[in-house]
């Protein structure tokens, strides 16, 4: 039965709330599936643009197009590591929440938010560099500029939303919205943040490496 | 030592750390049940792959390098 | 509690108090039945608007040199006709409308998984519809519903409005898809395994992932078109390094699955109606269920058969052609199963059944011309002619819209508690059937002779069959007028239907018509397939549904 999926046994120590917890278990299953399906359809949105980029890239003669240099891999690798590191800290934030270590949870959560903001700053730095030094722009550099700025911009938008989302979740958890047994919001936040990281794996590979 | 090399070294070191951390997290999580944990495992595995890719890119194994800068 | 142990205290037994006040009940309602009816009403309003546009097209084509509207207006009219019919009429009617009303009742749920999301996705839809139609004010899009660049890049500002409106409809569809998948995965009544689920639900289950995945791909294409038009970002303009062919790939990656979004729920309704009025178990339940899934899956992989004349590499044409042919197999399985269900049954010729039988005939014709068009050599000959127009009207009007009408006559008693007039209904059916064939059958011949689609004037040799087509369309429009009169009259004055006027066996017919806002007093337990006529009903726990026993609102 569905009760088995709750990590801590919802009824233990909450005998008077047994029925409410049953409701929570079922609602949680609904929300989890809905959230995952939302992530899948979001993934399709990115995939479409990635497909478009790869399609154009493979139908052209030479790549990169004349007038555009290869991107700065060293800095992008550093920036990626920042984002991936934030994925790891987010994971440990949730783990510590599950094990009731609020202090460590807070540390890892703040670390995640800070790393997310660092990534966005790195992204902003890279955009300015590309625009002012390399003269690569959204509308003026063919399919490369269009795809690069659309995809990384969409991703950056997702990271921005994620940073806001995680901040709200953190404030909520400080105010006691979530308990040791009921923390679906944090699970969803972690899922979203991992999703954003994993999208970046694909974007980093297609724009900087191949 | 120019800025690009410092970036590279931080990327390599960070990549190693993140790869190890996500591998350990994956190992600890390996037997957890539930849909959310299954997805977490997939995500952690991809995160590991991503960290390794970033580390290799920092180490100049992957990626396009038209002219060796600073060398 | 009298319900089963598995659900004690869960969502299934959780009844919220009934909402009070007109706004909460009927406007911003969270009830899936009300939302479904809202979808139906809005969809039918848009059907009238888009149908009038169709009549403008046909009236223009009454004479070889046109003259009813200007050529520019004609471009706007056929573009808006196609866009509105696909996105504002058929998809909302058949997924949002019937899916919302029927699916939760059939699986024995109190509501969909996310009622609030359901309300949101409904209210996005009329807003998007108004946006789409208001593009007439600033110069409507002119490049056809497919909006191929470079024409769509050069047309007036209405095209950006079009892209934004369709994007919004897409958001609404995606949310509906997510909602339906979660509902069907999580909220089925105890004992209702997937292989006991009614076939309409199976059809929705096959449709929902398409809504979710394919529509998002369209959103990407529309966003790219919007960005290119508004900010000059070069995705599709070949002079700036883009590719117009890419739009066709991105567009058809959505729009081919979209034709299955439009037809699969109609298949589902036909699979409910035919066994009910044949008084016979459906033939090949599992084959029908799985063929829906097969169609949905294969439908995602055949988009490039719309692009045989667009310069697709020959080594790509062959696999797309063969994959398209394979879709005919699960579709044929369905047609075969329906005919086999009819075979030896005690057929009741109600209006609903007539529409279902008409569906069988017309959809089969449309399906066969679909196989013709999938063949590369034939497609090269008729691509962009009236043959294509005839083909997709046979599947969309003769298929989906006939399915909608069959469903309306069938489910109207469940929605309102009153029957629709059978007399007017039969007039509606026969006029529609004759008018439809009069309109679209000649278009096959026009297409074979080489009359191109989307032209305001044509060679005088095509005049006769165009006139037949136009008169047929007037008959069809008149029959739809009869349908609306029938609906409006029957809502107030129709015969009281009682809970189960057709003697059907799925769950929704075992509760009062119209159902209470909480659907079931007690969630039933399911023991078998719903189609085994002559067996006792396979449900337990429904004894109180038709009595006046009180329900414990707000309790678990």
Which helices and strands occur, and which strands form pairs?
The complex is a heterotrimer of chains A (210), B (71) and C (556).
Chain A: H1 18-59, H2 73-98, H3 102-134, H4 142-174, H5 184-209
Helix pairs in contact in A: 1-4, 1-5, 2-3, 2-5, 3-4, 4-5
Chain B: H1 3-29, H2 35-58
Helix pairs in contact in B: 1-2
Chain C: H1 22-27, H2 32-60, H3 71-106, H4 115-134, H5 151-154, H6 158-186, H7 199-231, H8 244-278, H9 285-299, H10 314-342, H11 351-374, H12 376-382, H13 386-416, H14 422-449, H15 463-493, E1 525-526, E2 539-540
Antiparallel strand pairs in C: 1-2
Helix pairs in contact in C: 2-3, 2-4, 2-15, 3-4, 3-6, 3-7, 3-8, 3-13, 4-6, 6-7, 7-8, 7-9, 8-9, 8-10, 8-11, 8-13, 9-10, 10-11, 11-13, 11-14, 13-14, 14-15
Task: Summarize the structure in words.
The complex is a heterotrimer of chains A (210), B (71) and C (556). Chain A is mostly helical and 210 residues long. Chain A contains five helices and no strands. Chain B has one domain (3-58). Mean pLDDT of chain B is 84; it is low at 67-71. In chain C, 56% of the residues are buried. The longest helix of chain C is centred in the N-terminal third of the chain and has 36 residues, at 71-106. Chain C has a single domain (22-540), classed as Cytochrome C Oxidase, Chain A (Up-down Bundle), CATH 1.20.210.10. With 556 residues, chain C is an all-alpha fold. The chains are: A mainly alpha (210), B mainly alpha (71), C mainly alpha (556).
Short account of what is shown:
Chain B has about 70 residues and is mainly α. Helix content of chain B is about 70%, strand content about 0%. Chain B has one domain (about 5-60).
Largest contact between chains = A-C, 39 and 43 residues
> What value does the Rg of chain B take, in angstroms?
16 Å
Tally of extended strands of chain C?
Answer: 2
Spans of chain C of at least 5 consecutive residues whose pLDDT stays below 50 are 1-8
What are the low-pLDDT stretches of chain B, counting only 5+ consecutive residues below 50? 67-71
Number of helices of chain C: 15
CATH architectural name of chain C: Up-down Bundle
Strand percentage of chain C lies at: under 5%
Mean of residue pLDDT values of chain B: 84
Question: By helix and strand content of chain B, what is the structural category?
Answer: mainly alpha
Order of helices and strands of chain B: HH
Would you report the number of β strands of chain B? 0
- Total domain count of chain B: 1
**Ends distance of chain C:** 8 Å
Stated plainly, the CATH topology of chain C is called Cytochrome C Oxidase, Chain A
């Amino acid at each position: 039965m569905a009760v088995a999926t709750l990590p801590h046994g919802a009824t233990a120590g909450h005998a008077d709330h047994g029925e409410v917890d049953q409701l929570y278990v079922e609602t949680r299953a609904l929300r989890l599936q809905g959230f995952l399906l939302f992530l899948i359809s979001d993934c399709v949105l990115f995939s479409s643009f990635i497909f478009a980029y790869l399609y154009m890239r493979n139908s052209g003669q030479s790549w990169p197009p004349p007038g555009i240099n290869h991107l700065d891999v060293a800095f992008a690798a550093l920036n990626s590591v920042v984002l991936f590191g934030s994925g790891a800290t987010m994971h440990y934030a949730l783990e510590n929440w599950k094990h009731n270590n609020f202090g460590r949870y807070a540390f890892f959560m703040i670390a995640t938010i800070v790393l997310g903001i660092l990534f966005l700053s790195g992204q902003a730095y890279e955009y300015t560099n590309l625009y002012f030094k390399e003269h690569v722009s959204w509308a003026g550099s063919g399919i490369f500029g269009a795809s690069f700025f659309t995809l990384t911009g969409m991703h950056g938008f997702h990271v921005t939303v994620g940073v806001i989302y995680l901040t709200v979740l953190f404030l909520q958890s400080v105010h006691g919205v979530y308990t040791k047994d009921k923390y679906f919001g944090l699970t969803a936040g972690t899922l979203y943040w991992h999703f954003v990281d994993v999208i970046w794996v694909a974007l980093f590979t297609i724009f900087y490496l191949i | 030592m120019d800025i690009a090399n410092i970036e590279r070294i931080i990327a390599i070191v960070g990549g190693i750390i993140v790869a190890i951390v996500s591998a350990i997290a994956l190992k600890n999580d390996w037997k957890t049940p539930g849909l959310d944990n299954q997805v977490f495992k997939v995500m952690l595995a991809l995160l590991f792959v991503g960290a390794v890719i970033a580390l290799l890119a920092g180490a100049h194994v992957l990626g396009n390098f038209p002219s060796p800068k600073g060398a | 509690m009298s319900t089963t142990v598995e659900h004690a205290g869960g969502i299934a037994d959780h009844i919220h108090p009934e909402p009070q006040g007109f706004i909460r009940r009927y406007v911003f309602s969270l009830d899936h039945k009300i939302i479904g009816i809202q979808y139906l009403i809005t969809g039918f309003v848009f059907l009238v608007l888009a149908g009038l546009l169709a009549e403008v097209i046909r009236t223009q084509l009454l004479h070889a040199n046109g003259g009813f509207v200007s050529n520019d207006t004609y471009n706007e009219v056929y573009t808006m006709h196609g866009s509105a019919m696909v996105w504002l009429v058929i998809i909302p009617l058949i997924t949002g409308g019937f899916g919302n009303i029927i699916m939760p009742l059939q699986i024995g749920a109190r509501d969909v998984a996310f009622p609030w999301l359901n309300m949101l996705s409904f209210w996005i839809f009329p807003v998007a519809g108004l946006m789409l139609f208001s593009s007439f004010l600033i110069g409507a899009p002119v490049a056809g519903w497919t909006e191929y660049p470079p024409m769509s890049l050069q047309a007036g500002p209405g095209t950006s409005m079009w892209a934004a409106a369709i994007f919004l409809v897409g958001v609404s569809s995606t949310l509906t898809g997510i909602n339906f998948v979660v509902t069907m995965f999580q909220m089925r009544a105890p004992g209702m395994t997937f292989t006991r689920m009614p076939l309409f639900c199976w059809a929705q289950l096959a449709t929902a992932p398409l809504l979710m995945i394919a529509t998002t791909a369209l959103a990407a294409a529309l966003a790219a078109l919007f960005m290119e038009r508004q900010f000059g970002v070069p995705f599709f303009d070949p002079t700036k390094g883009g590719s117009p062919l890419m739009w066709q790939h991105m567009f058809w990656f959505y729009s081919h699955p979209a034709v299955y979004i439009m037809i699969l729920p109609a298949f589902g309704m036909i699979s409910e109606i035919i066994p009910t009025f044949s008084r016979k178990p459906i033939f090949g339940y599992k084959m029908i269920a799985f063929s829906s899934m097969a169609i949905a899956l294969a439908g995602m992989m055949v988009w490039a058969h719309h692009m045989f004349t667009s310069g697709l590499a020959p080594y790509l044409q062959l696999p797309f052609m063969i994959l398209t042919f394979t879709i005919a197999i699960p579709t044929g399985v369905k047609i075969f199963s329906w005919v086999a269900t009819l075979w030896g049954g005690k057929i009741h010729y109600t209006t609903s059944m007539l529409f279902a039988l008409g569906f069988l005939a017309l959809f089969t014709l449309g399906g066969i011309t679909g196989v013709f068009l999938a063949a590369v050599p034939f497609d090269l000959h008729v691509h962009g002619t009236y043959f294509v127009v005839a083909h997709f009207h046979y599947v969309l009007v003769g298929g989906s819209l006939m399915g909608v009408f069959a469903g309306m006559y069938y489910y109207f008693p469940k929605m309102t508690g009153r029957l629709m007039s059978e007399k007017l209904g039969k007039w509606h059916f026969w006029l529609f059937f004759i008018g439809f064939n009069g309109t679209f059958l000649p278009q096959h011949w026009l297409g074979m002779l080489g009359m191109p689609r989307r032209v305001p004037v044509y060679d005088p040799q095509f005049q006769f069959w165009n006139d037949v087509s136009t008169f047929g369309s007037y008959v069809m429009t008149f029959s739809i007028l009869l349908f609306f009169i029938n609906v409006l009259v029957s809502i107030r004055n129709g015969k009281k239907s009682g809970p189960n006027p057709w003697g059907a066996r799925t769950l929704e017919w075992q509760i009062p018509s119209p159902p209470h806002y909480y659907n079931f007093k007690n969630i039933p337990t399911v023991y078998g397939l719903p189609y085994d006529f002559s067996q006792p009903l396979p449900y337990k726990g429904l004894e109180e549904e038709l009595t006046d026993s009180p329900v414990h609102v707000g309790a678990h």
